[in-house]
UniProtKB/TrEMBL annotation:
Biological classification of the source: Bacteria, Pseudomonadati, Bacteroidota, Cytophagia, Cytophagales
Species per Swiss-Prot/TrEMBL record: Algoriphagus ratkowskyi
Enzyme Commission code: 1.4.1.1
Active site location: H96 (proton donor/acceptor), D270 (proton donor/acceptor)
Biological process (GO), any one: L-alanine catabolic process
Gene3D superfamilies: NAD(P)-binding Rossmann-like Domain
UniProt protein name: Alanine dehydrogenase
Occurrences of domain Alanine dehydrogenase/pyridine nucleotide transhydrogenase NAD(H)-binding (ranges): 149-297
PROSITE patterns assigned to the protein according to its UniProt record, in alphabetical order: ALADH_PNT_1, ALADH_PNT_2
Amino acid sequence: MIIGIPKEIKNNENRVALTPAGAQELIKRGHEVYVQHTAGEGSGFLDEMYEEAGVKILPTIQDVYEIAEMIMKVKEPIEEEYELIKEGQLLFTYFHFASYEPLTKAMVKSKSICLAYETVERADKSLPLLIPMSEVAGRMAVQKGANYLEKPLGGRGILLGGVPGVLPAKVLILGAGIVGTQAAWMAAGLGADVTIMDVNLQRLRYLADVMPANVNTMMSNEFNIRKLIQNHDLIIGSILIPGAKATKLITRDMLKTMLPGTVVVDVAVDQGGCIETSRPTTHQDPTFVIDDVVHYCVANMPGAVPYTSTLALTNATLPYAIQIANKGWKKAAQENAELVPGLNIISGDIVYQAVAESFNMEYTPVSKYLAD
């Protein structure tokens, strides 16, 4: 198979979809890998490193899309890329369709095959290609939140871990999945007073057993959320409904009950956000303030640490990419059930129900394409 790796052109996105080591694993199995000039530079992987691995470097993004049977990316295609995508071409990347209707319609129009990292799913309902970036984002949420709690950046002027004789900051985490768990570990390690909320009592029991003493668990409901946001300094939104829009847990009216200078980090913003006032921001312009509450809503948080993120992403995606390259997307999905929910759009049909429901568009069962 011919695999193309374009350079990411989303604002401040420095990750690349494949490391030279990952490319070498594909090449030694007989596949061809083409990488756009300087695509890996932001992550610390130079063209020469790819060439040593057997990769062919192409000068432009147009060249990569033109030659490739499978495009591997990190973030969803943006508007400038829509017309480059060919009918029948496989795109293997993060899409988060439910948060952006124009992207969904563009991919339907392209008649490409869209295999979304974020909805590849194991039998135990875990999301193996979302986990590594969720781990990064969860840890970064605390790092960024602690930073924006500083007074010059609009925060309350409170040190996350406090000092002897002064209480630490209070951190509230909404959602006890991968992002929330990683955020709790980080915040606890910095000495904060942490509360993590979820609707899954079994998950809360597990976390109560394994978390440090400065992490408390609480059932998530509107009453408890309204109560806790009034005296917490950093609030991290980390809920996820795979492939669908995030539920709004904090509404606009709740902001007025928060302490001035409270910081909210909405990690769920790439799925529409779990805070009503959230809107996607960029690393270049990461925050905005509403009702004296600082909102950090960068939709590609791991892009700020591209070396770590690219290595973590390749570790997770490569085994699947090898299967797809060896067998083609259809046979790979027939033989590996984990790939089936990753298929979101095929040849103009939306085959992931949550995406179709998000925009009241027609849904086609994926079985139409996977039947022999």
